[in-house]
Predict the 3D structure of the following.
Amino acid sequence: MTKADLVDAIFEKVGLSKKEAQDIIEILFDTIRQTFAEGESVKISGFGTFNVRKKMARRGRNPKTGEDLEITPRRVITFRVSNELKEQIEKLDA
Amino acid sequence: MTKSVLIEKVAEKIEGLTRNQTEIVVDTVFDSIKKALMRGEKIEIRGFGNFRLKTRNPRKARNPKTGESVDVPGKKVLYFKVGKALKEALNSEQK
């Protein structure tokens, strides 16, 4: 499934044109991205939580060359699935 | 940020879209992703990330209290991989 399928789903559900649906999807994910950029988490109830975590600078090594290097401080996103969705998924055949 | 705040922010940015319509849109997006996952599909949102299910194999574990061996059945877990554009956006303007 890609954004195009989400556009179709919105097109069918809401009385919007495909172009409008497309714009809204972009704005939706843009808004979430901007929230992350501000360092804020996003919680979608019934789905899960996206957390922004700060990583400190640390020493690392290039596994290919064995060279020592500094890994710069950075922000990463972690996703935690909601209990509700987790339970539904665990019921699927593994 | 919760879903309702997200809905408000999105609604503000789009002229002529009511808060109610925006709510339906946001719910439809996450419901569609959920349904696709339950069908075993991978979801690719360019510039954001991918969602897919990973399989955890069944394994034998031990009850740490009693030392008893227990069978842990296999299961599926949801995995989110952060998209490249998002990764870069997070680490461009800060520090």
Observations:
- Strands of chain B lie at 43-45, 49-56, 59-62, 69-72, 75-82.
- Chain B touches chain A through 54 residues (CB under 8 Å).
